[in-house]
Design brief:
The protein is α+β, with helices and mostly antiparallel strands. α1 packs antiparallel against α3, α4 packs parallel to α6 and α5 runs antiparallel to α6. The chain is globular. 33% of the residues lie in helices and 27% in strands. It contains seven helices and eleven strands. A hairpin with a 6-residue loop joins β10 and β11.
Length: 265
């Protein structure tokens, strides 16, 4: 089932209510059909056995926020086991505008937001090369893969030169990511330079705070961490597990107040 929305690059959210006829996993994919690899949301919504024991069996609601959107957004829902829509029906599909938000950040971070959003929405089909902002303040080197000094490929999707702020991005990873996941990575990399810090936790939390302040979905923020680490399980250690725990705790407790606290710090 595919529902087109004439979104016209507006900010909005969709409140969805779905009734499943039996336990299943619903696939939700929201994308720009005119461009390859431009998924604005891609997630799995489980309908477990427990959901069928209450007074409203098989019914679940969830919200899809879009602080970024194309001219026309396609919302596709399907049974992940069979790839069809025979096992559920949509009972609610309501659009609501996202109200303007005040984002507390340094002036250069505000300028970086637009640059990052533009790159993130296009990274799925851009060729490798060098991309800089019009004012020359920001630069992304888009590489097939990121390699060490001996030419060996690294598993990281991006890294930052803390002296220049130049960001290297691996096309092999970014082309597969959703746009929100790309935003999480780019904000994280920017804060390595902005703070500056070589530590992952402060870059993680400052980047996440900015991401959430802009209204991007929390679920995709968790995906950004777990999927990147899970794609290379051989390299995951206790430090990575601690990062995931810190990130999930931050997202679970986020209310917008963290913004003010962190900017006062």
């Amino acid at each position: 089932m595919v529902i087109p929305i004439p979104s016209q690059q507006q900010q909005f959210k969709v409140k969805v209510g779905v009734r499943a006829y039996e336990p299943c996993a619903l696939g939700v994919k929201c994308y720009d059909a005119t461009k390859p690899n431009t998924d604005y949301i891609r997630r799995r919504v489980p309908f477990t056995q427990e959901l069928f024991k209450g007074r409203n069996p098989g019914y679940k609601e969830f919200t899809l926020p879009f602080p970024l959107s194309p001219d026309q957004l396609m919302v596709e829902m399907y049974d992940k086991a069979y790839g069809d829509d025979q096992n559920f029906r949509i009972e609610k599909f309501e659009l609501e505008k996202i109200l303007p938000r005040s984002v507390w950040a340094e002036p250069e971070v505000h300028r970086f937001i637009g640059f990052a959003q533009d790159f993130a929405t296009k990274a799925g089909y851009l060729p490798t090369g060098v991309y800089d902002s019009k004012d020359g303040d920001f630069l992304i080197q888009y590489l097939p893969v990121i390699a060490d000094e001996e030419g060996n490929p690294l598993v990281t999707p991006a890294r930052t030169n803390r002296k220049s702020g130049r960001i290297q991005v691996a096309q092999s990873a970014f082309a597969k990511f959703t746009i929100p996941v790309r935003m999480v990575v780019l904000f994280h990399e920017r804060y390595h330079y902005q703070i500056p810090t070589r530590l992952e936790k402060p870059a993680d939390l400052h980047g996440l705070r900015l991401y959430l302040d802009l209204g991007f979905p929390r679920t995709e923020a968790v995906y950004a961490t777990t999927k990147i680490f899970n794609s290379h399980p051989e390299s995951v250690g206790q430090g990575h597990r601690n990062r995931v725990k810190d990130i999930v705790n931050f997202i679970d407790n986020y209310s917008g107040r963290e913004n003010l606290k962190m900017n006062r710090a």
